[in-house]
Design brief:
Strand order of the largest sheet: 1-2
Order of helices and strands: HEEHHHHH
Radius of gyration: 17 Å
Largest sheet: 2 strands, antiparallel
Strand content: 5-15%
């Protein structure tokens, strides 16, 4: 139990700004960064640096990220990032119109990310 307590203490700074928001309409469990954390200057600086890096990587494909939450939500930017960084081509519809097609597109994108990072942790419930 001592080890478990140490683990919880070590993870506390990583999860202190995350809040559970319950289930969405499709039954998926949702978590998000708390609104208070978004006001933190370190979080704002990190978000800005991440946007600048993504925009720099995606300059050649003319994609501009303005809002991380909105622009990363459907997998389009993630797909473009993996294609640019790993030289992978992800076969999917360019525009995902339904929730099901968005999830399928995001699942394929995450599968490609897992493959290139050689991990197996990102899952999307269908």
């Amino acid at each position: 139990d001592e080890l478990e307590r140490e683990k919880e203490e070590a993870l506390k700074p990583l999860t202190s700004g995350v809040m559970d928001t319950g289930m969405d309409e499709s039954g998926d469990f949702k978590r998000q960064v708390s609104p208070e954390s978004l006001k933190d200057t370190k979080v704002q600086a990190l978000s800005q640096q991440l946007k600048e890096w993504i925009n720099d990587v995606l300059t050649d494909v003319h994609i501009v990220v303005k809002n991380l939450c909105e622009d990363l939500s459907d997998g389009q930017v993630l797909s473009s990032l993996i294609e640019q960084l790993a030289g992978a081509k992800i076969e999917h519809q360019e525009v995902a119109q339904s929730v099901a097609s968005q999830k399928a597109k995001l699942s394929e994108t995450l599968a490609q990310i897992n493959y290139h990072l050689q991990v197996n942790t990102f899952l999307i419930n269908s």
